[in-house]
Write a structure and sequence with these properties.
binds flavin-adenine dinucleotide, Butyryl-Coa Dehydrogenase, subunit A, domain 1, Butyryl-CoA Dehydrogenase, subunit A, domain 2, about 55% helix, four-stranded mixed β-sheet, four-stranded antiparallel β-sheet, alpha+beta, Butyryl-CoA Dehydrogenase, subunit A, domain 3
Length: about 375
Amino acid sequence: MEFKLTPEQEMLRDTAREFAEKEVEPRVEEIEKTRKIPEDLIKRLFELGFGGIIIPEEYEGSAAGHLARAIILEEIAYSCPALAFTLQIVHLGQAPLIFHGTKEQKEKWLPDLAKGKLIASCAVTEPTGGSDVMGIKTFAKKENNEYVITGRKCFITNVHLANIHGVLAKSGEDPRHMTFFMIEGDRPGVKPGREENKVGLHGCNTGELILDNVRVPVENVIGVEGKGLRVALTAITNVGRMGVAATGVGIIRRCLDEAVKFANQRVLYGQPISRLQAIQWLISDIYLRYETARLLLHRAAWMIDQGIRADAEVGMVKLTATEGAAECASKLSSILGAYGIMEEYAAQRLLRDAYSLIPAAGTNEIMRIVISRKAFERAT
Ligand SMILES: Cc1cc2nc3c(=O)[nH]c(=O)nc-3n(C[C@H](O)[C@H](O)[C@H](O)COP(=O)(O)OP(=O)(O)OC[C@H]3O[C@@H](n4cnc5c(N)ncnc54)[C@H](O)[C@@H]3O)c2cc1C
């Protein structure tokens, strides 16, 4: 068993760390205030090869894999969770094609997705169908060689940034008959709707996707007609949940560093508060959460890179990293006293960002269900 990163992974981590420190960190205040991620930062993600990190080389991606992806997302999230989340959904938008696309579909779309000429959203959730995916109402009616799709998606990340959308729709009488489509943003009847105001992850846009009698050729179906739920779930599990988790791990590491720095500087009773055992316990809790979540993250990413099914392991890290991020940001806020709720300090932003991660890509109640399935399987 090897716990060391490869030289290539170390190099990627260092590149991501330098990018985050020098180019992202100085812009965080601007992003928080304007609630917009500057276009040049999105462009840089692609210039550095981070946009195409899980796209195979034959389709012009950097093909570094899921562990490398987790490492760079952690680095970016350390400085700006909202930018890491935007990037992770860029990858989620590519995932249905990577896992289930035909050679022709990959050749058609992946090179442009790797370069950032195309950005895809992944639109599954609807007002009537979040955890209960069967509750979605978007319907795709087949007419000869086309589908006509109508519906309204909500809480879709990057929907106002994307120019192509991955969409899950019902497509038959059986409620489980669903099909996954790639829908170009310039097709008549496609338009982003309302933009949401989240408490955290400011700048990372979330909103509605409206589909009004959109005509899509059968060539845009990803995977098998009627089996779209599998396409959506593979992408959400291996890429969406992992990206949420990696963002959480970045938040926890930031909480750790901010906590140690403050505890060493703040003097009470004639000595730094780092000498108080109560503060040491809070810091050791944060450190433990960081190590646990990061190890779970790397193990699950390694499994995905090896092609091993990792639903439960992904559920474990998504739960640990997001609940951990919220807990650690809350502990950081306690250590800071009143400074913990002041806007000049990162603690309040980290807390808001951490809370925003919790329902994303499936709530933690759903993660517990996924984990328990494996627990029961093991026992039989
Ligand atoms: C930041 C962010 C980004 C997102 N980005 C996207 C995106 O890009 N694309 C997309 O399609 N969606 C996206 N979503 C939506 C997200 O996937 C849903 O919010 C999530 O699946 C939960 O659905 P819901 O909000 O409708 O909650 P509901 O499903 O209504 O859940 C309500 C409550 O019931 C609980 N619950 C539900 N079912 C069960 C059960 N069987 N057992 C126990 N408890 C249960 C839930 O855990 C929760 O506590 C995003 C959400 C967030 C917050």
